[in-house]
Amino acid sequence: MGIIGINSKRMIITLTLGALAGVTCAIGTLIGNNPIFQISLMYLIYLWYNRLMLGFVLGIADNVRIINHDLGNSIIRGALIGAILSIILVIVPGLAAYSFILAGVVFGIIIDLVATKLAPSESNA
């Protein structure tokens, strides 16, 4: 355990994966080239930052229990947090890009599963 009860190893893993998810999301947005929406550098940074924050929130959500099954809990927790944090990507720009929410769910599940596997909380270890 690190400072204020946060699993430092988990936080490093989730932030790293969140940053990588942000790069992946930004590249996917560029490749998608939606003709309705003007893609700017600021929006790409906004996407990257959102995914980094997804990693941060999943890092501090280590002890959040939704169900009493480690694998299932990681999947549900990652999906819920990913969806909740991704809603802002649809609301703020007024873009009906629900694929951002789906991507957030997928990234959330992957980040949480990897972090739970590589850095389990002390109660699960």
Account of the 3D structure:
The protein has one domain. The protein is 70% helix and 0% strand. It has four helices and no strands. Helix 1 runs antiparallel to helix 2.
Averaging pLDDT over every residue, what do you get? 87
Question: What's the helical proportion of residues?
Answer: 55-70%
The poorly predicted ranges are none
Helix and strand element order: HHHH
What general form does the structure show? elongated
> Which strand-content bin applies to the residues?
under 5%
Radius of gyration: 15 Å
Please state the structural category.
mainly alpha
The end-to-end span amounts to: 12 Å
Q: In short, what is this structure?
A:
The protein has 125 residues and is mainly alpha-helical. 70% of the residues lie in helices and 0% in strands.
Indicate the topology.
Blueprint (H helix, E strand, L loop, with lengths): L7 H25 L8 H20 L9 H22 L7 H20 L7
Helix pairs in contact: 1-2, 1-4, 2-3, 2-4, 3-4
